[in-house]
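Sample 3 of the quickstart, ligand NAP:
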Amino acid sequence: MSGILLTGGSGRLGTALRGLMPELIAPLRAELDITNPASIRATLERYRPEVMVHAAAYTNVAGAETEKELCWRVNVEGTRNLVRMALERPLHFVHISTDYVFWGDAGGYKESDPVGPVRNYYALSKLAAEEVVRVLPKYLIIRTSFRPSPFPYPVAFDDMYTGQDYVEVIAPEIALALRNLGQISHDTLHIATERKSVYELARRTRPDVEGRSRKSSAVALPEDISLDTNRWERVRGMGLEGGND
Ligand SMILES: NC(=O)c1ccc[n+]([C@@H]2O[C@H](COP(=O)([O-])OP(=O)(O)OC[C@H]3O[C@@H](n4cnc5c(N)ncnc54)[C@H](OP(=O)(O)O)[C@@H]3O)[C@@H](O)[C@H]2O)c1
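Result:
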């Protein structure tokens, strides 16, 4: 697949994806501001991509509680601006979403499970963005979760379970999916790893990390937001280009 345009290329995931896929076209925000429809139009006309991978977002979960307007403008209106332009051209749209679209008490969420209600404003904005993307004729929503490594905080929640992993584990999986979009017939895919506590994950890269309760966070957080990844494992098992199978 050629001609893949990436939004959010300067972010954590975007930087990792650019390292793995140097062919990605990843304009900086100065060129492509998703809150500015004119800059989106100009960028699409300049590069004429076949695929758009939308990884730009307002991602500060705690900040979103007080910066609701900015969070909504970037995550929902920004996505809507891209989708409007995508409706005008034959573009395969790949949207990076989050496990936070689920309530997060049961864990093991499948792609077909009902979403919401959500725990915080960031999650609400990402859920709304997914629904905007679903108006497109051709899209793939990838729900995922990742951390930079080493784990960036001295404390980690030992009562919050997740399928998230380090960005260097998750990004190659997403790159594999992007290289094989033609083989993926699903419209939603969970890309994550096994269920574990955030504390267990943190200890892998920061052995001195201290356990804390998620209740000490200023933002409401789920107790088990882990994802069922069987669908992605089945797709992977088909023997994808650039995969290990
Ligand atoms: N981090 C996680 O744990 C996590 C979990 C699940 C899902 N996700 C999703 O994964 C995606 C990538 O997350 P990340 O953690 O890599 O993000 P990040 O490091 O916070 O980076 C955000 C990116 O979005 C760009 N951006 C923000 N506002 C923009 C605008 N108005 N126009 C154009 N670009 C804009 C930023 O550009 P600047 O450099 O110019 O600011 C940056 O490249 C997001 O969709 C996020 O919701 C993240």
